[in-house]
Amino acid sequence: MYRAASRFDEKYKDEKCPHCHTIGQNYLMMGEEILACPLCRGVFISKETMADFKSKLRDILVAQGQDRSAWVCEECGFRAKTKAGLNAHMRKHDNATDGD
Predict the structure, then answer these.
(1) What is the pTM of this model?
(2) Where exactly are the structural domains of the chain?
(3) Low pLDDT (below 70) residues in the chain
């Protein structure tokens, strides 16, 4: 039997269906933290569960030395989330050097 994840419940009040972008519905709970939208019938996991998953995944990647958000500038120690972000940061160093 399914139960409802009430929009009045503090835990589910700000849930947003990623399929139809509806906020504040009484979603149907399909499992432990799996929600179904009553309007579009899209199925998704709760924000809290997704945040836990991302945190655990990041911990695993760091432990394995595969943390992709660890792009570090060798000149100043700046940490970028992406390689493109690090490249943009490095251009600032290049521009500062060109001005001397």
Answers:
(1) 0.48
(2) 3-47, 65-100
(3) 1-3, 65-70, 98-100
